[in-house]
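Sorry to interrupt, but I need a hand with the structure work. Can you supply me with one protein entry, sequence and fold together? No commentary is needed, just the two lines. Leave the record below and I will have a look.
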Amino acid sequence: MMNYKLSSETKNFLKRHHRHLINGLWKKSSDGAEMQVTNPATEIVISKVPVAGKREVDEACVAARQSFDDGVWVNMSPASRGKILWLWADILENQKKQIAEVEVLDNGMPMAVAETFIGWAIDWIRYYAGMPDKLSGENLSGPTSGDGNAFHSYTSFEPVGAVGIIIPWNGPFGTFIIKVAPALAAGCSCVVKPAEDTPLTALILAEAGLEAGIPPGVLNVISGGSDIGKQLVANKHLDKISFTGSTEVGKEIVRVCAHDLKRVTLELGGKSPCIVLDDADLDLAIPGAAMAIFSNSGQVCFAGSRLLIQEKVYEEVLEGVARFAEGLKVGDGFDPETSIGPLISQAQLARVASYVERGKNEGAVLLTGGEEHKNKGFFFAPTVFGNVSEDMAISTDEIFGPVLSTYRFSTLQDAAGVANNTRYGLGAGIFTSNVNTAHKLAAGLKTGNVWVNHYGGMHSALPFGGYKESGWGRELGKDGLKTYLEKKTVSIKLS
């Protein structure tokens, strides 16, 4: 942690005997089971959290079910729900330093990255705090039947019910909010399971939610491993599952939810292209393309892990990106000079290293990086490959680490062909000085999000999600709210 001094609030939080939040009460696991939380930068245990069993999963799901059926939240006035959500955001705003410290310790991301993500996420709460009193349907008073009878008809929105939410380890605070805030705004009750590697900020969020006035049973948080997630998905008391994680796990969730046709939202993997055209401002494009993959150590679902460069500027951009990568400091997130933090675990470090070796064995040219740091922590150097073909594993598979594959193209059609040659379709970046080219290329990309002359920015009003195997549904914006709503049609025959 260098010479960084943790706040007393963070120190005290880490020392706590953490509990599950179930029906407004903090509860330990019935069998007393706990798991350690490790700082990936130091490999030091920083805290412990309880491990839920079937009993805790059932209790949390029943609490969400009953709170929804009793109407303690959904029948509250929309304005009152909005005030509580706004207060929740205010409480978290006052805890930003503590939250950022815990996120760095828990996840390993640099402090500047944590602060940015946390700021975004708190604004997302405020966006949805303004939504509860704006859930209006349509007036459809015109339709008549074939025999001339007149009808007055209208539509309305209702919350889907009790929701199970499973969040990943790569952005635990923000992903919690991106799902829970619209669910609560819609009137749903929730059971949240944070990732076992990064469970801590979920507890801060839950505590702040109670303080803000979210009623007991409306927001429940249970911690544990993948077996707990499986139990949550299969639980009969839930109406919907929202999941962020790997495509493979997402497919399994669909199979389980098909049994009772639970509603499902999935934000899954990616192998996103970043495209640099020969008319691009290279002073913008080179660092932009580099950080599209290296931000958060490449542990981002929409990371720009494939860099497509038009042939006229290929050598210049490739050299520039490699040089930029070599200048990035890899280290502890509390060091203000750190640009690249650790990977989340030893297992993830081994996974990234194996893909790098496979890339070399398949004929890709390693231009820079490709090494683990031998000191403590799960660090891997920013890595750039040239001479990558589209059939290589580093080109097709989501590595989830700081590994960039590069390609040469000549025409826009060529660029779109390479960009779309993937089972994923989450994000894409375009760097060009020609707005017409940007529009034309964006229209040809099979992806849910396209960023032009920047990469990866997220805003509360802009829907986020993917095509193909990158998921189902959208998060953020009005679309993110609608995933937690059912639409009802009422038709009245007029006499």
In short: The chain has two domains: 8-268+471-489, 273-459. Residues 306 and 405 are 5 Å apart (CA to CA). Residues 111-129 form the longest helix (19 residues).
